[in-house]
Amino acid sequence: MTAAKHAVVLVSGGMDSAATLAIARELGFICHALSVAYGQRHSSELAAAERVAAQLGAAEYKRVQVDLRSIGGSALTADIDVPDAGGGGIPITYVPARNTIMLAIALGWAETLGAADIFCGVNAVDYSGYPDCRPEFIEAFERLANLATKAGVEGAALRIHAPLIRLSKADIVREGMRLGVDFAATVSCYRADADGRACGHCDACTLRAQGFRDAAVADPTRYAC
């Protein structure tokens, strides 16, 4: 009998991580969903993460608290206005070291579980301004994981999967639809209200809406106005 495959899947509550969880499940992994409450602007995405984990059959759901608001430096963790879509360079919504911290927590839980696989929903196509969404970062973190852990040193190779990293938003919508993801349950907006309703104007909203248009799929997003 083939041994069960366990994986830790980072689930933020947004559409990308929901699709990633569905992919991990399709690949036959027993999925342990992990969210990080890092001091982000609203809690509706965390509620969405727990909802998505339940809908997509995660074996368990864990939420870990990390106070990145005490560091600040981002419109998501400090008293800085989230801008409307547009602009160049690294966006003000970039949270310093966020993906490094989240993957490190996922790595610790994976090693505790005896899981050799970690999935995350980073995407380099639509978010190329974020340095921790690049393939080079994922490759470097996988090397770190195998150098810095008991499991890695003892020969249990650890793998970091980023199955969406080269997909467009439209491709992600199509893949999610194929796998039965309920995108209406997800929250992507940087300025979502307490009920998870989207602003419709920030980068995350604009990219999400464009993805549904390009995929010719009705947008199920709930907007505040």
Structure, explained:
- By secondary structure, the chain is an alpha/beta fold.
- The protein has one domain (5-214): 3-Layer(aba) Sandwich (Rossmann fold).
- It contains 7 helices and 5 strands, in the order βαβαβαβααβαα.
- The protein has helices spanning 15-26, 44-55, 98-113, 135-148, 150-153, 169-178, 203-214, and strands at residues 5-10, 29-37, 60-65, 117-119, 159-161.
- The protein has a 5-stranded parallel β-sheet with strand order 3-2-1-4-5, with helices on both faces.
- Strand 2 (29-37), helix 2 and strand 3 form a beta-alpha-beta unit.
Sum up the structure in keywords:
alpha/beta, 7 helices, five-stranded parallel β-sheet, Rossmann fold, 225 residues, globular
Give a short summary of the structure.
The chain is an alpha/beta fold. It contains 7 helices and 5 strands.
> What gyration radius follows from the Cα positions, in whole Å?
17 Å
What profile does the largest beta sheet have? Answer: 5 strands, parallel
Poorly predicted runs = none
Could you state the order of secondary-structure elements as H and E? EHEHEHEHHEHH
What is the percentage of strand-forming residues? 5-15%
The CATH topology is what? Rossmann fold
- Number of E-state strands: 5
Residue share in helix = 25-40%
Strand and helix map with partners:
Elements: E1 5-10, H1 15-26, E2 29-37, H2 44-55, E3 60-65, H3 98-113, E4 117-119, H4 135-148, H5 150-153, E5 159-161, H6 169-178, H7 203-214
Parallel strand pairs: 1-2, 1-4, 2-3, 4-5
